Amino acid sequence: MGMLEVAEKEDLVITCKSGVTIRMKVADISEQGRATQGVKLIRLDEGDEIAAITKIEDQAVSENAENGNGNGNGNENAGEANEGPATTE
Fold first, then answer.
1. Are 58 and 9 in contact (CB under 8 A)?
2. 22 forms bridges with which residues in the sheet?
3. Secondary structure of 33-79 in the HEC alphabet?
4. Of 20, 41, 83, 84, which one's alpha carbon is 20 to 30 angstroms from that of 31?
5. Which residues pair with residue 13 across a beta bridge?
6. Rounded to an integer, what distance in angstroms lies between the CA atom of residue 71 and that of residue 84?
7. Closest CA to 44 of 10, 23, 14
């Protein structure tokens, strides 16, 4: 069992020993009063356990979005011809 302080602008990543990983926005987690039993964020299969809980700052998400069109190569001109050196086979 553990505790992690998070801010509303961050994301939370929960990884199970079985390999299941979920990511959620902290802002989407409902707040409860002090007399409640808490909020269930993930349903575990029998015998499974939480392996890690990590917070991801919003800045990391926005940096990836600014690098291009989201296809992972930073090329904002996706679909256009790539002008590079010609290759022969």
1. yes
2. 14
3. CCCCCCCCCCCCCCCCCEEEEEEECHHHHHHHHHCCCCCCCCCCCCC
4. 20
5. 23, 54
6. 19
7. 14
Q: 27: which DSSP letter?
A: G
Look at residue 22 and give its three-state secondary structure: strand
pLDDT digits (tens, 9 = 90+) for 25-83: 999 988 877 777 778 888 999 999 999 999 998 754 455 555 555 555 555 454 444 44
Q: Which two tokens mark 9?
A: 């602008």
- Inter-CA distances, 50 with 1, 2, 15, 17, 56, Å: 9, 10, 6, 6, 17
How much is the pTM?
0.58
CA distance 41 to 26: 11
